[in-house]
From TrEMBL:
Keywords: Cell membrane, Membrane, Transmembrane, Transmembrane helix, Transport. Pfam families: BPD_transp_1 (PF00528), OppC_N (PF12911). It is a multi-pass membrane protein. PROSITE patterns: ABC_TM1 (PS50928). InterPro entries: BP-dependent_transpt_permease, MetI-like, MetI-like_sf, OppC_N. The chain crosses the membrane at residues 26-47, 97-127, 139-162, 226-249, 274-298. This is ABC transporter permease. Gene3D superfamilies: MetI-like.
C-alpha cells in the first residue's frame, strides 16, 4: 500500500500530470470519454429499457418524439424508433458495440503492425523490402474497398447461418487489416534508430538472441509513438465501423452499433422522425471527438520537439 501511495505521489508530481491538470479542454474530453464508456459498460444497469428484448417492446410506442416535444413522454426521454425501442437505451447498448469493435480492431492492427515493424526495422534487407512493399500495396486501397473485399470473402467462405453471428469479427478484421501499416511504419523507423545504439550492440556481444533483443530492449522504446497512434486510431476505427454499418457492411440489426442506429433513422428522416438518427449521431460525434482530443494531447506531450 505504501509503495502504491508513493507511485501515485510521483505520478501527481510528474510533468505528464502537470500538463494534464493545466489543459482544461483535455480534462473535459477525458471526463466525457469516461462518462460515455461508463454508460456503455453499465448499459445493462443504467439503461431505462432493454431495447433488444422483444418481450418489452410495444409497437404502439413506436416513433414517439423526445419528452420535450408534443406527444413525447417521460418514459422515453429521447423518443423511440419505428419498432418502439427507447433511443437513449439503444445509444447505450449501441455505443458498447462501437467501442468493442474499435478497441478490438485497434488491438489487432497494433499487434500486426508492431510485429511487422519490428521485423522490418531490425532485420532490414529483403524482410524490410517485402513488408514495406506490402504496406504500400495496402495503402493503395481505401478502407471501404478492403471491407467490401473481406465481407465478400467471408460470405463465400462461411455458411449462411453463421454470417450474422460472425459479422462482429468480420468488421474487426476489415478495420484491423486496413490500419496496420501506420503502426508498422512508425515502429520500423524507431527500430532502425534503436538498433544502432550501444545497448543493442552490447546485447549482441553478450550472445543475446535477436528475438529477445527486439522484444525486451527495442520494443519498450517504441511504445510512446504506438500509444499515440493507437489512441488516435481508436477514434478512426469507431468512425470507420459506423460508416461500414451505415453502408450495410457493419453490425447487423440484432447487434446494432451507433452506425446501425443512424442508418435505421436515416430512412425515416423524410417522415419527420429526426430524433431517431440525430441522437445516435450526436453520441458518435462526442465519442470520436473526445478520443481525438485526448490523442492529440498525448501526441503533443510525448513529442520531445514540442516541449
Amino acid at each position: 500500500m505504501t509503495r502504491l501511495t508513493g507511485l501515485l505521489k510521483d505520478w501527481a508530481a510528474s510533468d505528464f500530470a502537470w500538463r494534464f491538470r493545466t489543459s482544461p479542454p483535455v480534462i473535459f474530453a477525458t471526463v466525457v470519454f469516461l462518462a460515455l464508456v461508463f454508460c456503455a459498460a453499465a448499459a445493462n444497469w443504467i439503461a431505462p429499457h432493454n431495447p433488444f428484448d422483444p418481450a418489452t417492446l410495444d409497437i404502439m410506442d413506436s416513433r414517439l418524439p423526445p419528452v420535450w416535444s408534443d406527444g413525447g413522454t417521460a418514459k422515453y426521454l429521447l423518443g423511440t424508433d419505428e419498432q418502439g425501442r427507447d433511443i437513449l437505451s439503444s445509444i447505450f447498448y449501441g455505443m458498447r458495440i462501437s467501442l468493442l469493435v474499435g478497441l478490438a480492431a485497434v488491438l489487432f492492427s497494433v499487434t500486426i503492425g508492431v510485429l511487422l515493424g519490428l521485423a522490418a526495422g531490425y532485420f532490414g534487407g529483403w524482410v524490410d523490402a517485402v513488408i514495406m512493399r506490402l504496406g504500400d500495396i495496402q495503402l493503395s486501397f481505401p478502407t471501404i474497398m478492403i471491407a467490401f473485399f473481406i465481407d465478400g470473402v467471408a460470405k463465400i467462405v462461411m455458411p449462411v447461418a453463421m454470417r450474422e453471428e460472425m459479422r462482429f469479427y468480420v468488421v474487426i478484421l476489415a478495420i484491423g487489416v486496413a490500419d496496420w501499416v501506420q503502426f508498422a511504419r512508425t515502429v520500423r523507423a524507431s527500430t532502425m534508430v534503436e538498433r544502432r545504439k550501444d545497448y543493442v550492440a552490447a546485447a549482441r556481444i553478450s550472445k543475446v538472441g535477436g528475438a529477445r533483443i527486439v522484444l525486451t530492449h527495442i520494443l519498450p522504446n517504441t511504445i510512446g509513438p504506438v500509444l499515440v497512434l493507437a489512441t488516435l486510431g481508436l477514434g478512426v476505427a469507431i468512425l470507420t465501423e459506423a460508416i461500414l454499418s451505415f453502408l450495410g457492411l457493419g453490425m447487423p440489426p440484432a447487434q446494432p452499433s451507433l452506425g446501425t442506429l443512424i442508418r435505421a433513422g436515416n430512412d425515416l428522416l423524410l417522415s419527420g422522425e429526426w430524433w431517431i438518427s440525430l441522437f445516435p449521431g450526436a453520441a458518435l460525434v462526442l465519442l470520436v471527438l473526445s478520443v481525438n482530443m485526448v490523442g492529440d494531447w498525448l501526441r503533443d506531450v510525448l513529442n520531445p520537439r514540442l516541449r
